[in-house]
Amino acid sequence: CMKYDFVAFGDIVIDAFIKLSDAEEMVNNGVRELCVRFGEKVPFESVTEVLSVGNAPNAAVAVHKVGLHSGLVVHVGDDLNGQRCIDDLAARDRKS
């Protein structure tokens, strides 16, 4: 039976960072806004996905990096993205 120093409970997500190719920054009443043409698809150059993130996974990984035994309890969907997160976490565990 494995004993843990830390167990994180929460959500697991995939972050997508999108580099826009056609957008304009404007200041409206002192607030910076990102503006795109209304009714059109937002043109983008690239998207970078970061798997298996969120408060709970990030905390479990951080605790593990400082040398403690950490666990993670999350609900994962029975779909391609859920499997991608499981595979990503397993690969990280093998590297440590």
How would you sum up this structure, described in words?
With 96 residues, the chain is α+β, with helices and mostly antiparallel strands. 28% of the residues lie in helices and 38% in strands. It contains two helices and six strands. The strands form three sheets. Strands 1-6 form a two-stranded parallel ribbon. A two-stranded antiparallel sheet has the order 2-5. The protein has a two-stranded antiparallel sheet with strand order 3-4. A hairpin with a 2-residue loop joins strand 3 and strand 4. The longest helix is centred in the last third of the chain and has 16 residues, at 80-95. The chain is elongated. The model has no long low-confidence stretch (mean pLDDT 92).
Order of helices and strands: EEEEEHEH
Q: Name the shape in a single word.
A: elongated
The largest β sheet comes out as: 2 strands, parallel
In whole angstroms, the N-to-C terminal distance is 20 Å
Which structural class best describes the helix and strand composition? Answer: alpha+beta
Number of separate helices: 2
- Level of helix content? 25-40%
Radius of gyration: 19 Å
Record the strand order, biggest sheet.
1-6
- Number of extended strands: 6
The poorly predicted ranges are none
Strand share of the residues? Answer: 35-45%
Report mean pLDDT, rounded to a whole number: 92
Short précis:
By secondary structure, the protein is of the alpha+beta class. The protein has helices spanning 55-65, 80-95, and strands spanning 6-9, 13-20, 24-28, 31-35, 44-53, 70-73.
